[in-house]
Amino acid sequence: MNRILLRHGAEVRKFITFYQDEKDGSLYITQRRAGETESSSYHYMKDPESEPDHIHTITSSQPKNFEVHYHTSGRINYPEPEFESIFAEPLTCITEPFWFASFVIPSFSALDEYDAALSEADFAFPLEGDRGARRQFDLCISSSGAHITNYGRARGHFTYTSFYTLNVIETEKPAIKPDSSPKFSLLAPRKGLFPAQQLTREVAHIEYQQKRHGHSGPIIYGPNANHEYRVIFQIAATTPPNVLAKLPDETWRLEIISVRNSEARLRVLDGGGNVVKTPIKFSRVELSDNTATLCV
C-alpha cells in the first residue's frame, strides 16, 4: 500500500492511501480520518474545474472515509448510493488521460497528524502558501509512463509498469468554494467515457493476470502454505467449468475449493483422502466443452 502525505514546512499530515489489488488488478484510493463525521459532501462535476450540478451532504454520523474503487474492467465505484458507478477504459488498456475523482480538503490543519518515519512507499506532497487554505487534488489515470504535467502546482505520478499511471495533482483553484461546502468533499464526473462496462469481470481478471505475467496462456499459482493451487484460465468460460486433472498417480484426485468463470482453487488428495504435499508441476490447462483439464 502506498501512502500520500501532505507536508507544510516541517509538519506532515495524512492524506490518502492507494494500492493495486494483486489478485484482480483493481485500484483502490482511500481517504481515512480518525473518528466520525457529519460534515462531508459528495459532488457531481462535468470536469474538475466546473461548478457542481449535484451535491449530497452527509447528515448522520459515520466514519470519516472516502473510497474510490477503479475496477480492472473500467467500472468506477464511489462510496455513496447517490453516486452511480461510471465506466471508463479497463485498467489493462488505458490509452487516454481521464479524470475520475478529486479530494477536497478544507485546510491542511484539518487532516490527521502523521508522526511516524516515512517509508519507501510514502510520498509527501510539499505544500506552499496558507496552511488554512482550501485545497483540491485531482486523480487522473493515464497510460503507463504518461505523466500529466500541463496543469497544477504539486504533482505525483505513480506508474504500474505496463498498466497505467495514477496522477495526483493539486489544482490552482479548487472548484468547490468554501461558502458552498466548508467540508471535506469528494468530486466525481457525472459521466464516464462509455455508457456501459467494456469488459466482464472475468475477462478483465484474465487480461490483468496475463498482462502481469507477460503471456496469453493459463496461469497457475501454488501450492501455497495450505497446499492449494490457483488456476487462471486462458479464456473466460460461459459458466463455471468442470475441473479435471491428469495426475501422476491414478489414485489421486482433485478437491475443488472454488471455481468461477475465470479461475479455480483446488488441492490434490491421495487415495486415502490426504492432501498431497509434494508440489505438482502442471504444464498446461486444456479447455473443451466447458471442462478445464490440468495436465502434468
Order of helices and strands: EEEEEEEEEEEEEEHEEEEEEE
Low-confidence stretches: none
- The whole-number mean of residue pLDDT values reads 88
Number of strands: 21
Structural class: mainly beta
Major sheet: arrangement of strands:
8-7-6-3-2-1-10
What's the domain count? Answer: 2
Strand content: 35-45%
Q: How would you describe the shape?
A: elongated
Spatial extent as radius of gyration: 23 Å
What helical percentage do the residues reach? under 10%
Question: Gist?
Answer:
This protein has 296 residues and is mainly β.
Short key terms for the protein model shown above:
296 residues; mainly beta; 2 domains; 7-stranded mixed beta sheet; 1 helix; 4% helix
Describe the protein in words.
This protein is mainly β and 296 residues long. It has two domains: 2-201, no CATH class; 217-295, no CATH class. The chain has one helix and 21 strands. It has one helix at residues 201-213, and strands spanning 2-8, 11-20, 27-37, 40-45, 54-57, 62-70, 75-77, 86-87, 98-105, 122-126, 135-143, 155-160, 164-170, 184-189, 219-221, 229-232, 242-246, 253-259, 263-269, 284-288, 291-295. It has a seven-stranded mixed β-sheet with strand order 8-7-6-3-2-1-10, with no helix packed on it. Strand 15 (219-221) and strand 16 form a beta hairpin.
Topology (SSEs and partners):
Blueprint: E1 2-8, E2 11-20, E3 27-37, E4 40-45, E5 54-57, E6 62-70, E7 75-77, E8 86-87, E9 98-105, E10 122-126, E11 135-143, E12 155-160, E13 164-170, E14 184-189, H1 201-213, E15 219-221, E16 229-232, E17 242-246, E18 253-259, E19 263-269, E20 284-288, E21 291-295
Parallel strand pairs: 1-10, 4-14, 17-21
Antiparallel strand pairs: 1-2, 2-3, 3-6, 4-5, 6-7, 7-8, 9-11, 9-14, 11-13, 12-13, 15-16, 16-19, 18-19, 20-21
